[in-house]
Amino acid sequence: MKNKVKFTKPISSDHDGLRFATPEIVAKYRARRLKCDVLADISCGIGGQTIFFAKECKKVYAIEIDPVKIEHAKKNCQLYGVDNVEFICGDALGPEIIHKLPELDVVFSDPARPPKEKRRLLSSITPSIEDMINAYSSRAKGFAFEVPPQLTPERIPFDCEMEYLSLNGKINRLTLYFNHLKKCNRSAITLPSEESLCGSGTGEIPESEIIKKFAYEPEPSVVKAELLPELAEKMRKGDNRTYLFRIDSKRALMTSDEKLKSPLLKNQYVVLAETKVSVEDINRKLKELNAKNALIRGKIDPDNYWIFRNRIETGLNGDKTIHLYITDNSAIICQPLVEKD
């Protein structure tokens, strides 16, 4: 099942290799971004990213310390019909490996990390970014590293571009670009649309304590990159401003009196009503709005989700799917402007 989701062909893999492999759609995008003559793919794993580097670059050196994974990578490159990859099994930091390589345009590294961590740390990845740059700085013009997307910008102490990528509305990857590959300080991109946003992360978005006519849920890549001010400015129409409306400590909506559109908005709503956080008030308002059901977001105990939802949906026989955002003080009733599949 995962194989079908991630790849269009039946790739060869062990269990862990498939689990951590870069999805094909992401690999294609990143290969286009890093297109060059000669590229080294460090910690290539089963070759999910290597395949698409090979389709964009003249020559790719795929380096992997695990001999089992590199055999899978060879088979997968054959499966996808690429023959411009030279495979090297060994420690990418070993002098004997580095000396085998010519001058490189780009070094890409997807370093190993623990399968689970209570809190993702840069110090947990191997080989480290510092060690890779020190080892290859005399041979490579540019560097790119994949690191855990849970890392927030302030926890990344490098002069690089931090590109957060979301796939089908969920955060998927964080890539760090160094040297000439850096376009800005922070960036966000969403796939499959490939809509992107660059910025410094220093702007501010005004907050509103009142929800306005329309509400917007931004792509998680924009949120992670902390580029909401840049997105608000990009969507601005005349004097009409976009504000931040906080649902709780973890969630916020963008809100405006103007109807806005952007591929960097995950969901777009028209605000139908606002009421007290009580079963009776919400249920009554849902009936008035001809609702069929209500999807609840915001401040609600997960253990009580279905109890609360079943109660507020009692007696509903309309035809609208409503999205309900629960705050400390109110329940905001919204209807999607564009239904997602």
UniProtKB/TrEMBL annotation:
Domain of life per record: Archaea
Keyword set, alphabetical order: Coiled coil, Methyltransferase, Transferase
Coiled-coil annotated residue ranges, if any: 272-299
InterPro entries on file: RNA_cap_Gua-N2-MeTrfase, SAM-dependent_MTases_sf
Record-linked Pfam families: Methyltransf_15
Molecular function terms from GO: RNA cap trimethylguanosine synthase activity
Transmembrane stretches, start-end: none
Keyword Transferase: yes
Keyword Coiled coil: yes
Entries under PANTHER family matching the protein: S-ADENOSYLMETHIONINE-DEPENDENT METHYLTRANSFERASE RELATED (PTHR14741), TRIMETHYLGUANOSINE SYNTHASE (PTHR14741:SF32)
Protein name from the UniProt record: Methyltransferase domain-containing protein
